[in-house]
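Dear colleagues,

For the upcoming journal club I promised to circulate an example of a predicted protein-ligand complex. I picked one with adenosine-5'-diphosphate because it came up in last month's discussion. The inputs are reproduced below in full, followed by the predicted structure.
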Amino acid sequence: MIKIENLSKIYRVGDIEIKAINDLSMTIEKGEFLSIVGPSGSGKTTLLHLMGCLDVPTSGRIFIDEVEVSSLSPSEVTRLRREKIGFVFQEFNLLPVLNAVENVELPLRYQRVSGRERRRRALEALSRVGLENRAYNRPTQLSGGEQQRVAIARALVTQPVLVLADEPTGELDTANTCKVIELMRDLNRETGQTFAIVTHNPMVADYTRRIVTLRDGSIYSDQAVEEKELACEDGDLGI
Ligand SMILES: Nc1ncnc2c1ncn2[C@@H]1O[C@H](COP(=O)(O)OP(=O)(O)O)[C@@H](O)[C@H]1O
Ligand SMILES: [Mg+2]
């Protein structure tokens, strides 16, 4: 699904160079369910943005489904992103002038899905994160946790083959964190969608099947995890 070769990303701020990603290589197979952990500033967000074609590396190569991203034109990169990737931003990036369901519809609009079908699928995605009753609220009328769940619904609504999520449960309580992980894991099992989830939360990492730990922009460890069953308490996400 993703092959990364000798990837580096250097930020220059004045005279200072920050190696956010430092000669990193890894492969993610189709259907994996993995977490990326590590201390703050270790390069997790930078790596996820590079994988999601939201940023360009300083050096190194990224292949998505065997296609080298840097060989594509900007419009081809945009198309690849819209067709294959769902991204949950650490800061949500919801549009404040749109309500929840309109935000979730946006990626379907880019895919030219018809209005009625768009609304149906967006409402269904909102209901999967327990927010069908908040569909017509704008982001400012929602709590941080609710905004985060809208951002998750928006990433999942196109049923992308690759979901990249940056701290997707950072604003959620334990019950809702569990439900979100359960939702993602069910989707991974049912549809074979690939998930890479950046997290600070050991519980989240523990329920993935592979934990990649970053330190100073490099891979510090890469471990397989034994699969465990989830037992969520009742949260807002129902059941
Ligand atoms: N746009 C930027 N300009 C300069 N430095 C940046 C920028 N984005 C990230 N960094 C730096 O790169 C390093 C990795 O950041 P980041 O990927 O956000 O880490 P994490 O998500 O693990 O907290 C940090 O030292 C951070 O300060
Ligand atoms: Mg981050």
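Two points we might discuss: The CA atoms of residues 29 and 180 lie 22 Å apart. The beta strands are 2-13, 16-28, 33-37, 59-64, 67-68, 85-88, 162-166, 194-198, 210-215, 218-224.

See you all on Thursday,
B. R.
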